[in-house]
Amino acid sequence: MGTDDLNTLLSVEFEVFGQVQGCFFTKYCKDLALQLGITGWVKNTKMGTIVGKLQGRKAELEHMLDWLSTTGSPGCKIDRCELRNWVYLTRFDYNDFSIRF
């Protein structure tokens, strides 16, 4: 997203591939999102990946996306993180961040 304004509100969907289930990835993801003021959701898939949607200011999203792509929860092994459906927002669609089942 080519904007330099770190206060721009954005939404993005993600999918994390690797050994990311069974290591509390969704819990750690929710904890970090809440700490950063990011709204949205996260869940495990039947295919062994983690998917979700994030909404927040560009600066906080960059931090979260770096965590999703490189760090993750203790004991996980991230192969890659795919991002799609970037959207500029005027307001958030979610009030909080949740783990879906």
Mind explaining what this structure looks like?
This protein has 101 residues and is of the alpha+beta class. The chain has a single domain (9-92), classed as Alpha-Beta Plaits, CATH 3.30.70.100. Helices cover 26% and strands 40% of the residues. It has helices at residues 25-36, 58-71, and strands at residues 9-19, 39-44, 50-57, 77-88, 97-99. The chain has a 5-stranded mixed β-sheet, with helices on one face. A hairpin with a 5-residue loop joins strand 2 and strand 3 (50-57). Helix 1 (25-36) packs antiparallel against helix 2 (58-71). The longest helix has 14 residues, at 58-71. The protein is globular and about 35 Å long. The mean pLDDT is 95.
Observed structural traits:
101 residues; Alpha-Beta Plaits; 26% helix; alpha+beta; 5-stranded mixed β-sheet
